[in-house]
Design a protein that fits this description.
621 residues; mainly alpha; disordered C terminus; Na/Glc_symporter_sf
């Protein structure tokens, strides 16, 4: 791509500014591990929300959604439920509050809070650390491959005559630049630089959406798309016929395996709801929740992510898709069976974005890599230093030692992730395995840990191990992780339940402490009875019905926020009016039924802060 001097200057200024900002504010992170990993729990929820949204805004994921909208039209708003994209709704309604009440630093440390210090807890602790580090390495490799391909396509300098080597060089350069401030600054640098990156990305997204609205009229778009493309409604089958427009699109729908769209949606909802109820995986999303100042702010942060992320991101996605539908169709058709939908992004930018704005958009897209890479990198030392080195090797070291160890671990994982990226040719292969197979095996154990009192550490370890072992062979097969999920989940669930009953329950005092601090709803009858013997004022969580209703409203709200910017860019004013009305009504409902009910403490502690005469503290007097 040919860039003007103005575009190159903007990109260079962005890279210098982001590294300088990260290094400038890194002093705040060097005090202790709490400051390094969680920002000292002093960061405002608005900043954490913008940071979390920025970390979710990756290049490859955005391009995947451009492809989905191009092929599936408005029905594509449901497909990201595969991840599931609506897990933020479950977090905002109740899970972020439960998680933040624990007061721990990492997901692995949370396991000890839940299961105690026995053999089962130790094994569970190790398997969660293993899972987290596998995820970190996978996503670092994924980020390295993605940024190398992106930078080589968009930046004007040929660093090597060999295209693959050129991608590697660019990947190394961008990795080093991002590593400078992530390693030194920890969570504080990550959050503040991601806020700046998010502002740049938002400007880029809106600009692309506006360009598309100016260049593509509804009439032009209608001639370039099949009947039903602009409708969110669907029947038993997808019923989008691309035969007369782009035959390869029909072939892609068949290869995706989503022709029976109702079956696909049922499987996606089944998988998505279960994975959402299991809570966040031990990655940057969980670290943001644990970094919040209070439980209620953690919930607000999770809700804020959807509000600020969906509209600008889908303006970009829609802008890229509709420009390609109208102007790039001949080139896609000429590619034959090897059509490459990833060429949509460079084609659109090269042909429709003016100088100056092009530099800003490329800087924004570079920011999507840097923010995701930074957030992922920050998760690695949290697990190695806090959950291994501090726990088992050097528990009495100084704060400076732990911070320096964090620097070292960050470097090691960046090098390992980059090395893995050098040998993996396909982004899709590693992402599908990580997100669908590995995370699919994570679901059963992490679902039961919240909602069933009898679930113990040995069962958690057995269920997680079964999930990881089941996921590994799927890397070498053509089996769809989505269609295999019910069988993987059932196998892990049976393993968890059987092992729970054939092994001794965890120390009841540990489980009581977990319940008193977290106060989840679910199957906690014997524990509720035990804590009420000590303190009859303890009330069980009676908020399941309200939480379930808020989740339903929240998913409708989330979907309307996804659909509204699409309708805006394609200038479908009727659809925009309906989506906006739904978003406003659901926002009002959530204001009264969710926001106004948020609490840092369990119900009876809101009523009175005075200790009960039956509390353990009083009984000891």
């Amino acid at each position: 791509m040919i860039l003007s001097a103005l575009d190159i200057s903007i990109i260079a200024a962005y890279l210098l500014a982001i590294v300088a900002l990260g290094l400038y504010i890194s002093k705040a992170a060097s005090k202790n591990v709490q400051s390094y990993f969680l920002g000292g729990n002093k960061l405002k929820w608005q900043l954490l929300g913008l940071s979390n949204a920025s970390g979710m805004f990756d290049i490859s994921g955005t391009m995947w959604m451009v492809y989905l909208l191009f092929i599936y039209g408005l029905k594509s708003v449901y497909i990201p439920w595969l991840w599931p994209s609506f897990n933020q709704i479950f977090l905002m309604v109740f899970l972020s509050i439960w998680l933040r009440r624990s007061g721990v630093m990492t997901g692995a440390e949370w396991i000890r809070f839940r299961f105690g210090e026995g053999k089962g807890a130790t094994l569970s602790h190790f398997v969660v650390v293993l899972f987290a580090l596998l995820s970190v390495l996978g996503f670092l490799a994924y980020g390295f491959i993605g940024i190398g391909k992106f930078a080589a396509a968009f930046l004007p300098w040929e660093l090597s005559v060999d295209p693959r080597t050129n991608e590697i060089y660019y990947g190394l350069i961008m990795t080093v630049l991002t590593s400078l401030y992530v390693i030194k600054g920890g969570m504080v640098s990550v959050v503040f630089t991601e806020v700046l990156q998010f502002v740049i990305m938002t400007i880029a997204c809106i600009a692309i959406g506006i360009v598309a609205m100016m260049k593509v009229s509804p009439e032009l778009l209608a001639r370039a798309t099949p009947d039903g493309w602009d409708s969110m409604a669907f029947g038993w089958k997808l019923d989008l016929d691309w035969s007369s427009l782009l035959a390869q699109a029909n072939e892609r729908i068949i290869s995706d395996g989503w022709s029976l769209f109702s079956v696909f949606i049922m499987l996606v909802l089944f998988k998505g709801i279960l994975q959402s109820m299991a809570g966040p995986a031990p990655n940057f999303d969980m670290q943001r929740v644990l970094s919040a100042r209070t439980p209620s702010e953690a919930a607000k942060m999770s809700g804020f992510v959807s509000l600020v992320l969906l509209v600008p991101r889908y303006m970009m996605i829609t802008g890229l898709a509709v420009l390609a539908l109208v102007y790039f169709m001949p080139q896609l058709s000429a590619m034959g069976p090897d059509v490459d939908f990833e060429q949509i992004l460079p084609f659109t930018l090269a042909n429709f974005i003016p100088s100056g704005l092009l530099g800003l958009i490329i800087a924004g897209l570079l920011a999507t890599f840097m923010s995701t890479f930074a957030a992922t990198t920050n998760a690695a030392p949290a697990y190695v230093v806090n959950d291994i080195y501090r726990q088992y090797i050097n528990p009495n070291a100084s704060a400076k030692t732990y911070v320096r160890m964090s620097y070292l671990i960050s470097v090691v994982f960046i090098v390992l992730g980059t090395a893995i990226g050098l040998f993996i040719p396909s982004l899709n292969a590693i992402v599908m395995w990580l997100v669908s197979a590995l995370y699919g095996g994570y679901t059963a154990s992490n679902l039961l840990k919240w909602y069933w009192w009898r679930f113990n550490g040995m069962a958690y370890f057995a269920g997680m191990s079964a999930g990881i072992l089941a996921a590994i062979p799927m890397m070498f097969t053509d089996v769809s992780p989505l269609y295999s999920f019910p069988f993987m989940f059932a196998a892990c669930l049976v393993t968890c339940i059987v092992v729970s009953f054939i092994t001794a329950p965890d120390d009841i005092e540990v489980v009581k402490n977990f319940y008193l601090k977290t106060r989840p709803w679910g199957f906690w009858g014997p524990i509720i009875a035990a804590v009420q013997k000590d303190d009859p004022s303890i009330c069980p969580n009676q908020e399941f019905k309200r939480d379930a209703l808020n989740v339903l409203i929240g998913i409708v709200w989330h979907t309307s926020l996804t659909a509204a910017p699409i309708f805006l860019v394609i200038q479908h004013w009727g659809g925009l009016t309906i989506a906006t009305a739904v978003a406003i009504i659901s926002s009002i409902l959530l204001k009264y039924m969710w926001w106004d009910t948020l609490s840092d403490e369990p119900h009876e502690q809101k009523i009175s802060s005075q200790p009960s005469m039956f509390s353990p503290a009083q009984q000891g007097k």
